[in-house]
Sequence to fold (304 residues):
Amino acid sequence: MNLITDLKLKFWLNLKSWVMAARPKTLSAAIVPIIASVGLVQSKGHPIEWWIVVFVLLSSFCIQIGTNLVNDAMDFKKGADTESRIGPQRVTQQGLFSFKQVMLMATLFFLLAIGLGIPLVVRGGFPIMLIGLISVVMGYAYTSGPYPLAYKGLGDLFVILFFGLVAVGGLFYLLTGEYDISVFILGLQIGFLSTILIAINNLRDMNTDVLVGKKTLAVRLGLTGARIWICFLVVAPYLVGYYWLFKNQFAMYVAPIFSLPLGILIIKRILATAPSAVYNKYLGLSAIYGVLFSLLFYMGSLVR
Fold:
């Protein structure tokens, strides 16, 4: 009986550790473009095939988790994650799982993403296959490979491209078979929102990242520059969003503005607080901010 109890306890402890390694807060970056894209599709009078939405969401989750796991393992291997880390603890650094175990789990999630993407490729053809394969490769290359993006200051650009332009554009194309400037505009808006997460994360860790040669954008810009970048990311969606006013789609611009007070709160706290463990709370707020913006955009898209 004790053996069974011990096995159950070990199972749940391991499961909890894997969930921690997946970084659930960051998964909002996969949800936000889905919500917004569905709203844009509906605003143009197209029907929603929900099986496509579900498969895209699940595949996106898998790529995001795989990327997080590679990040967990590689940051430890390269010395970026140590006992002095002020961010959420990483499973490799804590010794909960070995480097090989974490990398294997990352590979499994990438393979699962590819498997989930097969029906989408059947539906969307070569463009979707190309998007899917590049997304998986870039997820691995974010912190690994011969030119790790996060270590070269390209992590923010990666998020804007893949969690903004590619995510919005890919789903819109799958649901409609079309692509136009409005999709690009929405992709930029969502890309800026999703990048707030990584920008805050990198600002929090800049003092330890610089010691191991991890030249994130925050390290390159410095404290003041990194703060200005976050302020820009918070307000940029509304600047780009003037497009909706020019197209007489007022509700799609006005509705998301009701999320701006939360964005202003994030700015105030970032400007008033030195990089520290309290930034972990700001990460949660930025995740909520992105989801709230996308939900309000979706609601605005329903107004005719």
Summary: The chain has a mean pLDDT of 88. Residues 181-209 form the longest helix (29 residues). The CA atoms of residues 70 and 103 lie 6 Å apart.
